[in-house]
C-alpha cells in the first residue's frame, strides 16, 4: 500500500493520504505470545460488556472461563490495553502541573445540531499476532466519525493528528469532550482546541456514560469488524477499519436519527454551520 520507491510521493505524504502514522508504516505485530493475546482478547470482550470490571472482577471472570491467572497479571494486561474500570475512585494523586483537568460541560445540555459537540476516545484493537490503538473523533449529534488514526503506541501524536484533520475538514465545534487520560489533558492537545476557540469538556473520573456514544461506536466496530477478521498487519487492519467506518458513516441508518445515516444527519445542517464558522 505504501511504496517506498514512488517517484513523486514521499513516504510521509503517502502515510498522510492513507491516514496512518509513519510508525504504522513500519509496524510489525507486537511480540506477545499466543496465550497472552488470547487473554487480552477475552479481557477486551468482557470489558465491552462490563466496563465496570476492575482487575479483581476481571480475574474472577477469567477463572470462570478456565484461565488461572493472578491479579497482577490482569492488572498488567489491562494497563497495557488502556482499560480502566468506570466506577468512581477518589482522586488521591495530584495532576501533572501542565495537565489541567476541565469540567464536564454536557450535563443537562440539549445537543440539537451537528458541530455543537465533538467527542474523542482511544481504544485497544486486537490483531492476529499483536495489537494497535485507535483514536476517533465523533460528532455527538449525528454520530458521524469525523477522523481517526491508528498507532502502535499510546502516544500523543496520533491524537493530535486526528484532531488536526477534523478541524481542517469540518471546522470547529462549540464543545470538545474527552475523558481525562493524559493524551487529552496534555498541553499540546488542549492548546489546539483553545487556539480554535473550542470549549473543552472532560468526563468525571471513571464515568464512561459521560462519553457514551463513542463507547457504543467501539462496541459496534469491534463486534462487526475487528473480531470477525483476524487482521495480520497494520495496513490490513487500516483497510478493514476504513471500509467499516465508511459503511457506518454513509450506509448505516440509526433509529435515533430518524432512520438517517450519520453522514446524512451531519450534512443536513452541519456543513452549513461549518461554512459559517470557517468564514467568520
Concise account of the structure shown:
45% of the residues lie in helices and 12% in strands.
How does the overall form come out from the CA principal axes? globular
Give the class-level CATH name of the largest domain: Alpha Beta
Structural class: alpha/beta
CATH third-level topology of the largest domain: Nucleotidyltransferase, domain 5
CATH architecture classification name of the largest domain: 2-Layer Sandwich
The separation of the N and C termini measures: 39 Å
Q: Helix-strand pattern, N to C?
A: HHHHHEEEHEHHEHHH
Please give the largest β-sheet: 5 strands, mixed
Strand percent estimate: 5-15%
Q: How would you describe the overall organization of this protein?
A:
This protein has 2 domains: 11-81, no CATH class; 117-279, Nucleotidyltransferase, domain 5 (2-Layer Sandwich), CATH 3.30.420. By secondary structure, it is α/β, with parallel strands linked by helices. It has 11 helices and 5 strands, in the order αααααβββαβααβααα. It has helices at residues 11-18, 22-25, 34-49, 55-64, 71-81, 157-170, 182-185, 187-195, 212-226, 234-250, 262-279, and strands at 117-126, 131-139, 145-151, 175-178, 199-202.
Key terms for this structure?
five-stranded mixed β-sheet; Nucleotidyltransferase, domain 5; alpha/beta
Describe the protein's topology.
Elements: H1 11-18, H2 22-25, H3 34-49, H4 55-64, H5 71-81, E1 117-126, E2 131-139, E3 145-151, H6 157-170, E4 175-178, H7 182-185, H8 187-195, E5 199-202, H9 212-226, H10 234-250, H11 262-279
Amino acid at each position: 500500500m505504501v511504496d517506498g520507491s514512488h517517484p513523486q510521493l514521499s513516504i510521509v505524504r503517502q502515510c498522510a493520504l492513507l491516514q496512518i502514522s509513519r510508525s504504522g508504516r513500519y509496524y510489525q505485530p507486537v511480540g506477545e505470545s499466543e496465550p497472552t493475546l488470547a487473554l487480552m482478547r477475552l479481557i477486551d470482550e468482557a470489558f465491552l460488556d462490563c466496563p465496570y470490571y476492575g482487575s479483581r472482577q476481571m480475574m474472577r471472570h477469567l477463572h470462570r472461563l478456565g484461565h488461572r491467572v493472578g491479579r497482577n497479571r490482569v492488572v498488567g494486561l489491562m494497563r497495557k490495553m488502556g482499560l480502566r474500570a468506570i466506577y468512581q475512585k477518589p482522586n488521591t494523586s495530584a495532576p501533572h502541573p501542565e495537565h489541567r483537568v476541565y469540567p464536564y460541560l454536557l450535563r443537562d445540555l440539549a445537543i440539537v445540531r451537528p458541530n455543537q459537540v465533538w467527542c474523542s476516545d482511544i481504544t485497544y484493537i486486537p490483531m492476529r499476532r499483536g495489537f494497535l490503538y485507535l483514536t476517533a473523533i465523533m460528532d455527538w449529534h449525528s454520530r458521524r466519525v469525523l477522523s481517526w488514526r491508528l498507532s502502535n503506541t499510546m502516544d500523543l501524536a496520533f491524537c493530535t493528528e486526528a484532531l488536526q484533520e477534523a478541524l481542517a475538514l469540518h471546522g470547529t465545534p462549540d464543545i470538545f469532550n474527552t475523558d481525562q487520560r493524559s493524551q487529552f489533558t496534555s498541553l499540546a492537545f488542549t492548546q489546539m482546541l483553545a487556539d480554535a476557540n473550542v470549549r473543552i469538556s472532560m468526563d468525571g473520573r471513571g464515568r464512561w456514560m459521560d462519553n457514551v456514544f463513542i463507547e457504543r461506536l467501539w462496541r459496534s466496530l469491534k463486534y462487526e469488524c475487528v473480531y470477525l477478521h483476524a487482521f495480520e498487519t497494520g495496513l490490513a487492519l487500516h483497510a478493514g477499519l476504513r471500509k467499516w467506518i465508511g459503511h457506518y458513516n454513509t450506509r448505516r441508518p440509526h433509529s435515533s436519527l430518524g432512520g438517517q445515516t450519520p453522514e446524512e444527519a451531519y450534512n443536513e445542517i452541519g456543513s452549513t454551520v461549518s461554512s459559517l464558522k470557517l468564514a467568520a
